[in-house]
Amino acid sequence: MTKENIINMKKTNPEMSYSKIAENLKISKSYVGKVLKKNKDWDITELFISDIHIPYHNQQSIETMYRYTEKLKPNIIFLGGDIIDFHTISFWNKNPTAFSVVEEIKQTKLFLKELRHRYPTQKIYYLEGNHEMRLKCYISTRAYELFGLEQLELPQLLDFQEYNIKYIPSIDYIQNNGMPFKIGNLYHLHGHEIRMSFRAVSLARNAYLNLLDNCILSHFHRSDEWMQKTINNKIQFCYVMGCLCNLEAEYMPINNWNHGFGIIRYNRYGNFLVENKKIINNLVI
To answer: Which InterPro entries match (predicted)?
Structure first.
C-alpha cells in the first residue's frame, strides 16, 4: 500500500519533492526515490490554458480546445493567469459600457464550474496573472483600509474552495520560494514577472534570456518557442502559449495574437514534452 500511496501522491501533487512525500508518509526519502524511479506508471499529462480574459473570452476557441482534449484525460489542469479580466478596476482608460466586476466574477465562476464538471478528479492550479493583480492593486490604492480582508481576495470571490482549485499568487510564490512554480523540470510563469516587450521578434528567446532555464508562460497572446543548447550540451526550452480571449481587443484591434493552449507530458524523471497547440479557423494545429 505504501508504494501505491507514493505513486498516487506524486501523480496528484507533481510539484511535491521526494523529501515532502517522505515527510507526509513518514518514510525515508531514499525509499521514495527508489519506488518512483522503478515505477513506470506515473507519467503525468497537463493541460495548460491561459489568457481567457473572461468575459472577453472566445467561446468558440474554448469549445475547440475542449473537443480536442476530450480524450486526453490529463492529470493536471493549469490555468496560467489572466483568466478574469477586471477591466473596470484597471488603471487604464475604461469603457463605460464594459462589464461590471460583479458580472466578470459571475461569468468566471461559471467557467470554473464547467471546468470542474469536465475534469471532476483532476488537480486544478490557478496561477495569478497581471489581470488578477488588478484586484489587489485597486484595493491597496482605492480602499487600502480593506487590504488583506480575506472576503475580498480572489480565492474567496471565485469560490476556489468549492471547486477544489489551488491558487498560486505568482509574485508572492517567487518571493517566498526564490523561484517560480515548477512541475517536473518545467518552470511555470504567467509572463508579467519578467520585463519584456510585446514587440519582441522572438518572445520565447527573450523570456529564456531572462530565465536561463526550462519555462512555460503566456501573457503575450502569441505562440512561440525557443530551444537553447548550453555550454555543457544541456538542451533547454522556453514555450509561450497562445490565448483564448477575443483577438480584436478594443485597446489593440490590430495585433499578432493567436488562440492556443498547451499539452505537456512528464516522465518519472521530470522530463517533459510540450505540444504548443494553435487554434486557427477553429482547427487545432
So the answer is: Calcineurin-like_PHP, Metallo-depent_PP-like
Maximum separation of any 2 CA atoms in the chain, in Å: 60
pLDDT tens, position by position, for the chain (285 residues)? 577 788 778 766 766 777 888 888 888 888 887 777 666 555 899 999 999 999 999 999 999 999 999 999 899 999 999 999 999 999 888 888 899 999 999 999 999 999 999 999 999 999 999 999 999 999 999 998 999 899 999 999 999 999 999 999 999 999 999 999 999 999 999 999 998 777 778 999 999 999 999 999 999 999 999 999 999 999 999 999 999 999 998 888 999 999 999 999 999 889 999 999 999 999 999
CA distance 285 to 149: 44
The reply to whether 14 and 101 lie within a common domain is no
* 28 in the same domain as 48: no
What angle do helix axes 2-12 and 29-38 make, rounded to 10 degrees?
A: 80
Domain count, the chain: 2
Backbone angles phi, psi at 29, to 5 degrees: -65, -40
**pTM, rounded to two decimals:** 0.87
